[in-house]
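Technical annex B. To support the medicinal chemistry partners, we prepared a structural model of the target in complex with tryptophan, based solely on the information shown next.
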Amino acid sequence: MAEEKKKILYSGMQATGDLTIGNYLGALRNWMTLNEEYECFFGVMDLHSLTVRQNPAEFRQRARNLFALYVAAGLDPEKNCIYFQSHVSTHAQLSWILSCYTYMGELNRMTQFKDKSSKHADNINAGLYTYPVLMASDILLFQADVVPVGKDQLQHLEITRDIAQRFNGIYGDVFTIPEPYTGKIGARVMSLQDPTKKMSKSDENTNASVYLMDDADTIRRKFKRAVTDSDAEVRYDVVNKPGVSNLIDIYSATCGKDIKDVEKEFEGRGYGDFKMAVGDAVANMLTPMQERYEEIRKDKEYLDRVIRANDEKAFYFSNKTLRKVKKKVGLTEEIR
Ligand code: TRP
Protein backbone atom coordinates (compact mmCIF):
# COMPACT_ATOMS: atom_id res chain seq x y z
CA MET A 1 0.00 0.00 0.00
CA ALA A 2 1.39 3.36 -0.93
CA GLU A 3 2.09 5.51 2.08
CA GLU A 4 0.24 8.76 2.11
CA LYS A 5 2.56 11.53 1.13
CA LYS A 6 3.43 13.93 3.88
CA LYS A 7 3.75 17.61 3.26
CA ILE A 8 7.24 19.00 3.34
CA LEU A 9 8.57 21.33 6.00
CA TYR A 10 11.84 23.18 5.77
CA SER A 11 13.72 25.31 8.27
CA GLY A 12 17.15 25.99 9.59
CA MET A 13 19.34 28.18 11.73
CA GLN A 14 22.52 30.02 11.09
CA ALA A 15 25.65 28.70 12.68
CA THR A 16 26.45 32.11 14.10
CA GLY A 17 26.48 32.84 17.82
CA ASP A 18 25.46 30.53 20.64
CA LEU A 19 21.82 29.52 20.75
CA THR A 20 19.68 30.92 23.54
CA ILE A 21 16.58 29.66 25.29
CA GLY A 22 14.76 31.97 22.88
CA ASN A 23 15.88 29.81 19.96
CA TYR A 24 15.05 26.70 21.93
CA LEU A 25 11.61 27.58 23.30
CA GLY A 26 10.68 29.53 20.19
CA ALA A 27 11.82 27.06 17.54
CA LEU A 28 14.07 24.08 18.17
CA ARG A 29 11.96 22.44 20.87
CA ASN A 30 8.90 22.52 18.65
CA TRP A 31 10.64 21.12 15.62
CA MET A 32 10.80 17.66 17.18
CA THR A 33 7.11 17.07 17.05
CA LEU A 34 6.71 18.13 13.45
CA ASN A 35 7.95 14.97 11.79
CA GLU A 36 4.76 13.14 12.58
CA GLU A 37 2.89 15.38 10.24
CA TYR A 38 5.59 16.56 7.85
CA GLU A 39 8.61 15.31 6.03
CA CYS A 40 11.14 17.57 7.74
CA PHE A 41 14.39 19.10 6.55
CA PHE A 42 16.52 21.23 8.85
CA GLY A 43 19.69 22.88 7.66
CA VAL A 44 22.73 24.18 9.45
CA MET A 45 22.84 27.37 7.41
CA ASP A 46 26.57 27.83 7.28
CA LEU A 47 26.72 29.50 3.86
CA HIS A 48 24.49 32.26 5.16
CA SER A 49 26.87 32.78 8.05
CA LEU A 50 29.65 33.75 5.66
CA THR A 51 27.89 37.04 4.98
CA VAL A 52 29.46 38.15 8.26
CA ARG A 53 33.20 37.63 8.76
CA GLN A 54 33.90 34.45 10.74
CA ASN A 55 36.97 33.13 12.47
CA PRO A 56 37.51 29.89 10.46
CA ALA A 57 38.57 27.62 13.32
CA GLU A 58 35.78 28.81 15.55
CA PHE A 59 33.21 28.74 12.81
CA ARG A 60 34.03 25.13 11.92
CA GLN A 61 33.43 24.11 15.54
CA ARG A 62 30.29 26.15 15.79
CA ALA A 63 28.65 24.60 12.76
CA ARG A 64 29.36 21.10 14.05
CA ASN A 65 28.19 22.11 17.50
CA LEU A 66 24.91 23.34 16.09
CA PHE A 67 24.38 20.05 14.32
CA ALA A 68 25.09 18.13 17.55
CA LEU A 69 22.74 20.43 19.39
CA TYR A 70 19.92 19.71 16.96
CA VAL A 71 20.35 16.04 17.80
CA ALA A 72 20.78 16.62 21.55
CA ALA A 73 17.65 18.73 21.62
CA GLY A 74 15.77 15.70 20.39
CA LEU A 75 15.65 15.92 16.60
CA ASP A 76 16.02 12.34 15.49
CA PRO A 77 18.41 12.26 12.51
CA GLU A 78 16.75 9.10 11.23
CA LYS A 79 13.35 10.73 11.05
CA ASN A 80 14.38 14.23 10.05
CA CYS A 81 16.90 15.21 7.46
CA ILE A 82 19.38 17.42 9.31
CA TYR A 83 22.33 18.52 7.24
CA PHE A 84 24.91 21.17 6.43
CA GLN A 85 23.91 23.63 3.74
CA SER A 86 27.52 23.92 2.55
CA HIS A 87 27.82 20.14 2.03
CA VAL A 88 25.02 20.10 -0.47
CA SER A 89 26.13 21.79 -3.65
CA THR A 90 22.64 22.28 -5.04
CA HIS A 91 22.08 25.30 -2.77
CA ALA A 92 24.80 27.45 -4.28
CA GLN A 93 23.87 26.36 -7.79
CA LEU A 94 20.19 27.13 -7.54
CA SER A 95 21.02 30.36 -5.79
CA TRP A 96 22.97 31.56 -8.83
CA ILE A 97 20.19 30.65 -11.19
CA LEU A 98 17.52 32.29 -9.05
CA SER A 99 19.58 35.44 -8.66
CA CYS A 100 18.96 35.91 -12.37
CA TYR A 101 15.23 35.88 -11.61
CA THR A 102 15.37 38.32 -8.72
CA TYR A 103 15.26 42.07 -9.18
CA MET A 104 17.56 44.48 -7.44
CA GLY A 105 14.51 46.54 -6.63
CA GLU A 106 13.15 43.61 -4.60
CA LEU A 107 16.39 43.08 -2.72
CA ASN A 108 16.68 46.80 -2.04
CA ARG A 109 13.50 46.59 -0.02
CA MET A 110 14.69 43.91 2.39
CA THR A 111 14.71 45.38 5.88
CA GLN A 112 17.22 42.86 7.18
CA PHE A 113 19.71 43.95 4.53
CA LYS A 114 19.29 47.54 5.58
CA ASP A 115 19.71 46.63 9.26
CA LYS A 116 22.72 44.47 8.70
CA SER A 117 24.43 46.98 6.42
CA SER A 118 24.14 49.64 9.06
CA LYS A 119 25.54 47.24 11.66
CA HIS A 120 28.42 46.07 9.47
CA ALA A 121 29.14 49.26 7.58
CA ASP A 122 32.71 48.10 6.89
CA ASN A 123 31.58 44.89 5.20
CA ILE A 124 28.50 45.42 3.08
CA ASN A 125 29.23 42.53 0.75
CA ALA A 126 27.24 41.20 -2.18
CA GLY A 127 26.39 38.06 -0.21
CA LEU A 128 24.59 40.10 2.39
CA TYR A 129 22.60 41.61 -0.43
CA THR A 130 21.72 38.33 -2.15
CA TYR A 131 21.16 36.48 1.15
CA PRO A 132 17.40 36.19 0.48
CA VAL A 133 18.07 34.47 -2.85
CA LEU A 134 20.10 31.78 -1.12
CA MET A 135 17.33 31.40 1.44
CA ALA A 136 14.77 31.10 -1.34
CA SER A 137 16.92 28.39 -2.90
CA ASP A 138 17.06 26.45 0.38
CA ILE A 139 13.32 26.40 0.59
CA LEU A 140 12.47 25.86 -3.08
CA LEU A 141 15.01 23.07 -3.64
CA PHE A 142 13.05 20.93 -1.20
CA GLN A 143 9.65 21.85 -2.57
CA ALA A 144 8.69 22.91 0.93
CA ASP A 145 5.01 23.41 1.66
CA VAL A 146 5.59 25.12 4.98
CA VAL A 147 8.40 27.03 6.60
CA PRO A 148 8.43 27.82 10.32
CA VAL A 149 10.24 31.12 10.71
CA GLY A 150 10.21 34.01 13.10
CA LYS A 151 8.64 37.34 12.28
CA ASP A 152 12.00 38.74 11.25
CA GLN A 153 12.20 36.21 8.40
CA LEU A 154 8.72 36.62 6.98
CA GLN A 155 9.87 39.15 4.42
CA HIS A 156 12.38 36.61 3.15
CA LEU A 157 9.65 34.03 2.84
CA GLU A 158 7.57 36.54 0.94
CA ILE A 159 10.33 37.16 -1.61
CA THR A 160 10.79 33.39 -1.88
CA ARG A 161 7.17 33.10 -2.92
CA ASP A 162 7.55 35.94 -5.41
CA ILE A 163 10.60 34.37 -7.01
CA ALA A 164 8.90 30.97 -7.17
CA GLN A 165 5.75 32.40 -8.70
CA ARG A 166 7.72 34.35 -11.26
CA PHE A 167 9.72 31.28 -12.21
CA ASN A 168 6.63 29.07 -12.41
CA GLY A 169 4.93 31.74 -14.49
CA ILE A 170 7.62 31.43 -17.12
CA TYR A 171 8.38 27.70 -17.03
CA GLY A 172 5.34 25.95 -15.61
CA ASP A 173 4.94 24.35 -12.19
CA VAL A 174 8.49 23.80 -11.07
CA PHE A 175 8.36 25.01 -7.48
CA THR A 176 5.89 24.47 -4.67
CA ILE A 177 4.85 27.86 -3.31
CA PRO A 178 5.76 27.77 0.39
CA GLU A 179 3.57 29.09 3.18
CA PRO A 180 4.67 30.28 6.60
CA TYR A 181 4.04 27.57 9.17
CA THR A 182 1.02 28.56 11.17
CA GLY A 183 0.79 25.62 13.54
CA LYS A 184 1.46 25.97 17.20
CA ILE A 185 4.54 28.07 17.56
CA GLY A 186 6.81 28.45 20.49
CA ALA A 187 7.18 31.17 23.06
CA ARG A 188 8.57 34.55 22.20
CA VAL A 189 11.37 35.13 24.66
CA MET A 190 12.55 38.66 25.42
CA SER A 191 15.87 39.97 26.71
CA LEU A 192 16.33 39.63 30.46
CA GLN A 193 17.88 43.09 30.60
CA ASP A 194 15.55 44.91 28.23
CA PRO A 195 12.26 43.01 28.06
CA THR A 196 10.99 45.12 25.17
CA LYS A 197 13.66 43.58 22.92
CA LYS A 198 13.78 39.99 21.68
CA MET A 199 16.39 37.79 23.37
CA SER A 200 19.22 37.59 20.90
CA LYS A 201 22.23 35.36 20.48
CA SER A 202 24.24 38.39 19.43
CA ASP A 203 23.42 40.62 22.39
CA GLU A 204 26.59 42.22 23.73
CA ASN A 205 25.31 42.05 27.28
CA THR A 206 25.65 38.36 28.17
CA ASN A 207 23.27 38.83 31.12
CA ALA A 208 20.49 39.60 28.67
CA SER A 209 20.46 36.10 27.17
CA VAL A 210 20.46 32.61 28.63
CA TYR A 211 22.51 30.35 26.40
CA LEU A 212 21.72 26.68 25.99
CA MET A 213 25.19 25.84 27.24
CA ASP A 214 25.10 28.02 30.36
CA ASP A 215 25.64 26.01 33.53
CA ALA A 216 22.98 25.89 36.22
CA ASP A 217 24.63 28.53 38.44
CA THR A 218 24.97 30.98 35.57
CA ILE A 219 21.35 30.42 34.60
CA ARG A 220 20.13 31.07 38.14
CA ARG A 221 22.29 34.16 38.44
CA LYS A 222 20.98 35.60 35.16
CA PHE A 223 17.37 35.15 36.22
CA LYS A 224 18.10 36.63 39.61
CA ARG A 225 19.42 39.74 37.88
CA ALA A 226 16.62 39.92 35.33
CA VAL A 227 15.05 43.36 35.03
CA THR A 228 11.57 43.58 36.57
CA ASP A 229 9.55 46.48 37.93
CA SER A 230 9.17 48.12 41.30
CA ASP A 231 6.04 46.47 42.58
CA ALA A 232 6.25 42.89 43.71
CA GLU A 233 3.29 41.20 42.13
CA VAL A 234 3.76 38.25 39.77
CA ARG A 235 1.11 39.28 37.31
CA TYR A 236 0.99 39.01 33.53
CA ASP A 237 0.82 42.44 31.91
CA VAL A 238 3.06 42.85 28.89
CA VAL A 239 2.55 46.62 28.62
CA ASN A 240 3.11 47.66 32.22
CA LYS A 241 5.16 44.73 33.47
CA PRO A 242 7.16 43.49 30.48
CA GLY A 243 9.98 42.01 32.56
CA VAL A 244 7.80 39.91 34.84
CA SER A 245 5.58 38.93 31.94
CA ASN A 246 8.60 37.67 30.05
CA LEU A 247 9.61 35.57 33.05
CA ILE A 248 6.08 34.21 33.30
CA ASP A 249 6.21 33.30 29.62
CA ILE A 250 9.53 31.52 30.05
CA TYR A 251 8.35 29.66 33.15
CA SER A 252 5.08 28.72 31.51
CA ALA A 253 6.80 27.44 28.35
CA THR A 254 9.41 25.58 30.34
CA CYS A 255 7.00 23.84 32.71
CA GLY A 256 4.02 23.61 30.39
CA LYS A 257 1.85 25.53 32.84
CA ASP A 258 -0.83 28.07 32.00
CA ILE A 259 -0.11 31.71 32.68
CA LYS A 260 -3.05 31.91 35.07
CA ASP A 261 -1.72 28.97 37.04
CA VAL A 262 1.70 30.55 37.25
CA GLU A 263 0.15 33.73 38.64
CA LYS A 264 -1.70 31.69 41.20
CA GLU A 265 1.35 29.66 42.15
CA PHE A 266 3.25 32.83 43.02
CA GLU A 267 0.46 34.86 44.52
CA GLY A 268 1.66 36.72 47.58
CA ARG A 269 5.26 35.61 47.02
CA GLY A 270 7.83 38.15 45.93
CA TYR A 271 9.97 38.38 42.82
CA GLY A 272 12.90 36.75 44.57
CA ASP A 273 11.09 33.44 44.96
CA PHE A 274 9.68 33.61 41.50
CA LYS A 275 13.01 34.34 39.82
CA MET A 276 14.58 31.48 41.70
CA ALA A 277 11.85 29.12 40.50
CA VAL A 278 12.28 30.24 36.88
CA GLY A 279 16.04 29.77 37.12
CA ASP A 280 15.62 26.28 38.57
CA ALA A 281 13.07 25.27 35.98
CA VAL A 282 15.22 26.42 33.07
CA ALA A 283 18.32 24.79 34.52
CA ASN A 284 16.42 21.53 34.97
CA MET A 285 15.23 21.67 31.40
CA LEU A 286 18.68 22.31 29.98
CA THR A 287 20.87 20.02 32.07
CA PRO A 288 19.80 16.70 30.44
CA MET A 289 20.16 18.24 27.00
CA GLN A 290 23.63 19.49 27.85
CA GLU A 291 24.63 16.02 28.98
CA ARG A 292 23.33 14.47 25.78
CA TYR A 293 25.10 17.15 23.81
CA GLU A 294 28.46 16.41 25.47
CA GLU A 295 28.08 12.72 24.65
CA ILE A 296 27.10 13.28 21.04
CA ARG A 297 29.74 15.91 20.48
CA LYS A 298 32.44 13.48 21.65
CA ASP A 299 31.24 10.61 19.49
CA LYS A 300 32.98 11.51 16.26
CA GLU A 301 32.12 8.27 14.56
CA TYR A 302 28.41 8.60 15.25
CA LEU A 303 28.33 12.23 14.19
CA ASP A 304 30.23 11.56 10.99
CA ARG A 305 27.91 8.72 10.14
CA VAL A 306 24.69 10.69 10.56
CA ILE A 307 26.15 13.74 8.85
CA ARG A 308 27.15 11.70 5.82
CA ALA A 309 23.80 9.94 5.56
CA ASN A 310 21.80 13.12 5.92
CA ASP A 311 23.96 15.15 3.55
CA GLU A 312 23.41 12.46 0.95
CA LYS A 313 19.70 12.43 1.48
CA ALA A 314 19.52 16.21 1.18
CA PHE A 315 21.54 16.13 -2.00
CA TYR A 316 19.46 13.41 -3.56
CA PHE A 317 16.22 15.16 -2.78
CA SER A 318 17.28 18.67 -3.77
CA ASN A 319 19.07 17.59 -6.91
CA LYS A 320 15.79 16.44 -8.40
CA THR A 321 14.60 20.03 -8.27
CA LEU A 322 17.89 21.45 -9.49
CA ARG A 323 17.95 19.11 -12.51
CA LYS A 324 14.46 20.15 -13.44
CA VAL A 325 15.34 23.84 -13.13
CA LYS A 326 18.45 23.49 -15.28
CA LYS A 327 16.47 21.75 -17.94
CA LYS A 328 13.68 24.32 -17.86
CA VAL A 329 16.00 27.30 -18.26
CA GLY A 330 17.77 25.57 -21.15
CA LEU A 331 21.11 24.57 -19.71
CA THR A 332 22.52 21.61 -21.63
CA GLU A 333 22.47 18.22 -20.02
CA GLU A 334 25.60 16.83 -18.45
CA ILE A 335 27.07 13.80 -20.20
CA ARG A 336 28.16 11.08 -17.81
N1 TRP B 1 17.74 33.32 7.53
C1 TRP B 1 17.33 32.42 8.57
C2 TRP B 1 17.62 33.05 9.92
O1 TRP B 1 18.58 33.77 10.06
C3 TRP B 1 18.03 31.10 8.47
C4 TRP B 1 17.66 30.40 7.21
C5 TRP B 1 18.42 30.25 6.10
C6 TRP B 1 16.42 29.76 6.96
N2 TRP B 1 17.74 29.55 5.14
C7 TRP B 1 16.51 29.24 5.63
C8 TRP B 1 15.26 29.59 7.70
C9 TRP B 1 15.45 28.56 5.07
C10 TRP B 1 14.20 28.89 7.14
C11 TRP B 1 14.28 28.39 5.82
O2 TRP B 1 16.92 32.79 10.85
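Notes passed to the chemistry partners:
DSSP finds 13 helices and five strands in the chain.
The CA atoms of residues 112 and 153 lie 8 Å apart.
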